[in-house]
Design goal:
Layout lengths: L1 H15 L5 H72 L3 H33 L7 H30 L3 H23 L5 H8 L2 H17 L11 H36 L1 H37 L3 H28 L1 H8 L7 H17 L1 H10 L3 H12 L1 H11 L6 H25 L3 H29 L4 H21 L4 H21 L1
Helix pairs in contact: 1-2, 1-19, 2-3, 2-4, 2-5, 2-8, 2-9, 3-4, 3-8, 4-6, 4-7, 5-6, 5-7, 8-9, 8-14, 8-15, 9-10, 9-12, 9-13, 10-12, 10-13, 10-17, 10-18, 12-16, 13-16, 14-16, 15-16, 17-18
């Protein structure tokens, strides 16, 4: 069984990567995929239990109110990539990593204080004056304060987590993530069997998770990396570079957060907690499936940045094309069957499915594919370090999603799902913005990216989706149809990728890997 798993992942990675450190990317991706599978199972079951324990109304309140702070927690996770960029450059150049780490810690501490000072008055005002909580304001205030505490722990761990990923110790990242998922499940089950206000109990107990993982990252880094021992130091030029990069990154990632969590808050304000609950469940589906692409990019991102730092620009661009393309293939492998069988799967997963959940989840997956297909382009821009213009252009475009959606909901009286159509349209616009800016910043030709990545992915997606839909129409609903549709989609995608989704060199690499693994398997037998 292990041999088969290792074979499948090695095939994917060795077929994709032809530059830098293939063995390290393969090993790290295996750790991350093991993490993903376990977290997917735990996460889906946890979502079922917490929805049952809280009920649709309180689950919607938790997602909406907690989303105010979760938005900033997402910012901290995204800003971790800024830390990684500077760490990787210092590692590649043999620079003063200890100084960079200490300065990063000071920058993130300052950001944490600033965000908390902003959130306390502004967040409470939004909660008390704009959001609909159906008579649960006292509980909502507790959720808000507990969420702020969780955010503080998350911000503290960000520089340490960035160091672990920069050092490419993905097994540590995977282990701590699994512990986090297991603790979430344990707390959820415990809250379900407690007497009292489950919403307050759950939001309070869940604070222990970021506290535990923060301690874990800090302990590991202090034990293994001397450069993570903080010492006050000052380098004006490096601090300005770090603060400028992080500040502009903060603007861009805040726009991305505003897109994700702003939509949730908007749905609560306009439609109430029940629609928020549907969007909350849909977001769980979205998060579970997008982990495929995120894990792939977590493993390959360090290599893109290090290739840039080493001046291997041709190798970096090749890695961008391959990472974008094969990351999308991996996501389609799961996303298409799930979208085709969304209603049935949600009905089997949840005791009670909030209305419009299937539609919301499907639209969010379409949006995710568009967003993630050019993510490696953004990684290359980060490696270059000149992010001001990029963040201003792309960030301002993304910020338009919520106000445009609000105007459509208020004056055109459109249904709730219209906000997701707006988000998809804006995401398409930002893809072209990123490509045009990347030509200027890293020498990436938009026409090459469209031809080598977007076109083959589109062909594979359309043909695979058509095959799955044809099979779905021919069978009655049930687990047999789910299995047959999944098998048809996987088989069709595999054939389409081999025929239309690879270059001749990539196809030759796959054949060589197949032959080498077949030989190894026969020898093992």
């Amino acid at each position: 069984m292990y041999s088969a798993y290792k074979f499948n992942n090695s095939l994917i990675i060795f077929a994709v990567m032809s530059v830098i450190d293939q063995k390290k990317i393969t090993r790290n991706t295996i750790f991350l995929y093991l993490r993903m599978v376990l977290m997917l199972v735990i996460g889906l079951y946890t979502s079922r239990v917490i929805l049952e324990a809280l009920g649709q109304r309180d689950f919607g309140i938790y997602n909406s109110v907690g989303g105010i702070i979760a938005a900033f927690s997402f910012v901290s996770g995204t800003l971790s990539t800024a830390c990684q960029r500077f760490y990787m450059v210092e590692i590649g150049k043999g620079g003063n990593l200890k100084e960079t780490f200490s300065l990063s810690l000071m920058v993130f501490a300052g950001l944490a204080v600033a965000i908390v000072l902003l959130c306390e008055p502004a967040g409470l005002w939004v909660l008390e004056n704009k959001m609909k909580v159906d008579g649960r304001m006292d509980a909502a205030r507790w959720v808000f304060q507990f969420s702020i505490l969780s955010f503080i722990f998350t911000m503290v761990r960000t520089p340490y987590q960035g160091m672990v990923i920069a050092r490419e110790k993905m097994q540590v990242f995977a282990y701590l993530s699994l512990v986090e998922a297991a603790l979430t499940l344990a707390i959820t089950v415990a809250v379900k069997h407690c007497a009292g206000d489950h919403l307050i109990e759950y939001s309070g107990a869940i604070v222990a998770i970021p506290l535990f993982t923060t301690v874990g990252y800090v302990f590991y880094c202090l034990r293994n990396y001397p450069e993570c021992r903080f010492s006050f130091c000052w380098n004006s030029s490096k601090f300005r570079e770090l603060f400028s990069f992080t500040g502009w990154n903060f603007i861009g990632t805040s726009a991305a957060v505003f897109k994700v969590h702003g939509i949730n808050i908007l749905l609560n304000v306009v439609f109430g907690p029940l629609v928020s609950a549907a969007r909350g469940v849909a977001f769980k589906v979205y998060g579970a499936i997008t982990q495929l692409q995120e894990n792939f990019m977590t493993a390959s991102r360090p290599q893109i940045i290090k290739a840039h730092a080493a001046g291997e620009m041709d190798g970096m661009r090749k890695l961008i094309y391959q990472s974008s393309k094969f990351g999308a293939y991996l996501m389609l492998l799961v996303a298409i069957p799930v979208m085709l069988e969304m209603d049935f799967l949600l009905g089997k997963w949840l005791v009670e499915v909030p209305g419009k959940t299937a539609l919301f989840a499907s639209l969010m997956l379409v949006n995710a594919l568009i967003d993630y297909i050019d993510y490696p382009v953004w990684v290359a821009v980060q490696a270059e370090g000149k992010v001001k213009e990029y963040q201003l252009v792309v960030g301002l475009t993304m910020l338009s999603i919520v106000p445009v959606s609000y105007l459509l909901l208020k004056f055109a009286d459109l249904p709730a799902e219209s906000v997701f159509y707006v988000s998809i349209a804006v995401s398409i616009i930002t893809v072209f913005e990123r490509l045009l800016l990347s030509r200027k910043l890293v020498g990436l030709k938009p026409s090459d990216f469209l031809y080598k990545t977007v076109f083959p992915v589109t062909v594979v997606c359309v043909l695979t989706g058509a095959a799955g839909l044809a099979v779905r129409q021919a069978l009655d609903e049930g687990w047999i149809r789910v299995l047959v549709v999944s098998a048809a989609c996987i088989s069709c995608e595999a054939v389409c990728v081999l025929l239309f989704g690879m270059t001749g060199t990539e196809r030759k690499t796959v054949c060589n890997v197949l032959k080498s693994h077949r030989t190894a398997l026969f020898k093992n037998d």
